Amino acid sequence: xxxxxxxxxxxxxxxxxxxxxxxxxxxxxxxxxxxxxxxxxxxxxxxxxxxxxxxxxxxxxxxxxxxxxxxxxxxxxxxxxxxxxxxxxxxxxxxxxxxxxxxxxxxxxxxxxxxxxxxxxxxxxxxxxxxxxxxxxxxxxxxxxxxxxxxxxxxxxxxxxxxxxxxxxxxxxxxxxxxxxxxxxxxxxxxxxxxxxxxxxxxxxxxxxxxxxxxxxxxxxxxxxxxxxxxxxxxxxxxxxxxxxxxxxxxxxxxxxxxxxxxxxxxxxxxxxxxxxxxxxxxxxxxxxxxxxxxxxxxxxxxxxxxxxxxxxxxxxxx
Length: 319
Fold this sequence. Notes:
Elements: H1 8-50, H2 56-61, E1 66-67, E2 72-74, E3 78-85, E4 101-106, E5 112-122, E6 134-135, E7 138-139, E8 141-143, E9 148-153, H3 177-190, H4 197-202, E10 207-208, E11 213-215, E12 219-226, E13 242-247, E14 253-263, E15 275-276, E16 279-280, E17 282-284, E18 289-294
Antiparallel strand pairs: 1-3, 2-3, 3-4, 4-5, 5-9, 6-7, 8-9, 10-12, 11-12, 12-13, 13-14, 14-18, 15-16, 17-18
């Protein structure tokens, strides 16, 4: 066998190749460590930004006031909770310090636990055929049902499947009725004075939107007293657009509930239904708006959120 003799030049060349290879591996590891550190720094910045929003009322006051979905849970994968959005951020921005959504889990005592954030870019702004947006070294996922790019980040509640996984097995909607009961009580407290219709009118609910409304077989709704400045798309359970009154035999009006309304020109009829108090609004094609009745003051055998109430009539209306 012929022996190969390495010259000094060849030895130096081999050593340089080994050195470069080691250096390249070292640089790659250093780069990966640096990327991981940058992601961790950004996650901490998000936690600092949202620290105050463990208080749900502060989040609402800061602009994350629109419940986009009600409480969301998958029968096998886990939950997401409520998605409270800040609408002015749904403009295509991709900034880790400007999450479009705060995620809340309903608790047994009627409170909301802050569990994470979500970043959203609508398909109307960035086509589903485009390259996926990216934050924290992770690409957004497509949600064709909602028509959005989305990235969940579980900053406040550990997700055993990973911080950026969509579903969190540690999040549940088991107590979703508890916050609704609390909000119903808050509506009753906020509208207590409006059992006197004159007080309600003085406070702004002074537009009589219709004659007394009754269905021949389903029941009634009564009179609708609207506060027109509230017809701006707001979804705040403490700010109903309409107060409902039933005419009585003695000529008085009995306060029986509230109604929430969003016009189609603000929230299009083709869009997913708006949500408040974990309930979806119903489309009213004849009136061109979304509506949700809430029978806070008069029992409805069909349910608190049913449109028609068999216990309400217009027998004593003077229209």
